[in-house]
Specification:
Layout: H1 2-17, E1 40-47, E2 50-56, E3 70-76, E4 83-90, E5 104-113, E6 118-126, E7 136-142, E8 150-155, H2 185-192, H3 195-199, E9 210-214, E10 220-226, E11 231-237, E12 244-251, E13 258-265, E14 268-274, E15 285-289, E16 297-300, E17 303-304, E18 315-321, E19 329-335, E20 345-353, E21 358-361, H4 368-372
Parallel strand pairs: 17-21
Antiparallel strand pairs: 1-2, 2-3, 3-4, 5-6, 6-7, 7-8, 9-10, 10-11, 11-12, 13-14, 14-15, 15-16, 18-19, 19-20, 20-21
The chain binds (2R,3S,4R,5S)-2-(hydroxymethyl)piperidine-3,4,5-triol.
Amino acid sequence: MKLKYSIVIGFVCSFVFGQNKHFAPGKEWKDTNGVHINAHGGGILFADGTYYWYGEFKTEGKGGNTALKGVSCYASKDLYNWKNEGIVLKVEEDRDSEITKGCIIERPKVVFNKKMGKYVMWFHLELKGCGYDAAKAAVAISDTPKGPFEFKKSYRPNKATWPIDFKDKFKNASIDEQTLKSWTPEWLKAVKNGMLVRKDFHKGQMSRDMTIYVDDDSKAYLIHSSENNLTLHISELTDDYLDFTEKWTRVEPAGHNEAPAVFKKDGIYYMITSGCTGWDPNEARSFKSKSIWGPWEALGNPCVGKDADLTFHSQSTYIFSVQGKKDQFIFMADRWNPKNPIDGTYIWLPIKITEEKPILKWFDKWNLETLAN
Ligand code: DGJ
């Protein structure tokens, strides 16, 4: 009788909560309605016993990478089975809105702000019809993880402020930078020495690919590709997470990093990034630092094995820790499909830290239990 009961309960639970028992990187990943998950360039929030996965809602064909609906959200208790919670930040019909239908919304990340009791979403925003020129970071807030998120503001961060460690001698150009030919050694040296920081000093610094990192002391940071994707910036957010304190620094000047994802283990900050090749995959990079403010030490490609030079045909988007599993971090990446963006798949892999270096190894199929063995 007891056995019969547990079989029935097991069946009902697996029916209600879904069937996935593994991660299958790169494969179609069906939600609890049997539809491929549509949350690209995403990030994870854990709140009240539930994981929430936010991402770019893509559509079919040409134009499918622009925001025609907004930011989607899925909820899960076990990380394998995800329920579609719908569009939590909707694009607007108003043509004058910065988030009008057809703009570009990329890499949304949601964090909880304890002080305000609000959920805060940051994302990369490009204005409709302007390509990637606006290069803005934007913020929206909600009372609940399931939204609706209300769009608040967009920024070119750190207007008229220098990075914390910027040398006085670089605050004015020493040569005629306009005449330098791109990608020559002189040009790269000028970029390293802040040519593009100076260029955007009054307008505010660019912000394209981004992530948010919340530290143990609740301070939050926007980590963003700036200076035309040549240099990463780390910008501290105000206590409400809605603005910038204007304390910021540069990482890997002229290093050409995109797709930053940050985590911390045993007091060391780690960052995984990609190079810049549009929607095409390239070799990931990794870094470590004892402080969020650096210096960040380059550790090379974290991927090992077949296709390590292409990050297993994917590009990083986020790293999160699994609840109740000490030091278990999951690397999230996108296998983009620019011809039909909605078909892009997800690469989730466990991160192993060996001698203060993150290592990513491919698994066709894995789960948290098999990892433990
Ligand atoms: C690479 C970025 O990582 C993506 O988020 C997107 O902006 C594409 N470039 C656009 O080409």
